[in-house]
Amino acid sequence: MARPFSILMLCLGNICRSPTAEGVLRARLQAAGLDGRVHVDSAGTGDSHLGQAPDPRAIACAAGHGVDISMLRARRLALEDFDAFDLILCADRTILHEARIRKPRTSHAQVELLLDWAGQGKKDVPDPYYGTVRDFEHAFRLIDAAAQGIVERVRQGRF
To answer: For the segment 39-51, what is each residue's pLDDT rounded down to a tens digit?
Structure first.
């Protein structure tokens, strides 16, 4: 059996947007019966939250939508990720720029903006960390729409 297509969700600290994206995409793939076709993980470009659980507001927001991300732990993007993953999806343009700078020339990984790759337009997922519960809900809605777009791409074999 061929190895599953692999996607890494990437944000700054790996405690808000990227663990939410990892959890939501896993849940949507499972609901569609496609979870065996795609491996999903998440990381951050920074190291200030290494080993920490997602932000409690992100956990609560995801849980309110039936997605459990409480078991995830923050980790930093590693050079090996550029070989281990087929696709690295970035929460915003700043993260996209940083990931592309870090990407080794020999890497096969595609590095793209999450919402753009998922057919949601060239928009950023705003970082809700310094915001309110409403900001976490807004980020969740954007991420969920992206996850649905990714599921559709997987279903159609367009990845």
So the answer is: 999 999 999 999 9
90 included as an active-site residue = no
Candidates 92, 124, 127, 144; catalytic one = 127
Q: Let me know if residue 68 belongs to a domain.
A: yes
Q: What is the pTM of this model?
A: 0.96
Whether residue 158 lies inside any domain: the answer is no
The CATH number of the domain holding residue 144 is 3.40.50.2300
Q: How many domains does the chain have?
A: 1
Is 127 marked active-site? yes
Beta strands in 12-141 (DSSP E): 38-44, 87-90, 110-113
The residues of the chain scoring below 70 in pLDDT are: 1
Of the residues 16, 17, 41, 124, only one is catalytic, namely 17
Q: Of 79, 90, 85, 77, which Cα lies nearest the Cα of 127?
A: 90
Q: What domain range is 24 assigned to?
A: 5-152
Catalytic residue among 11, 16, 61, 90: 11
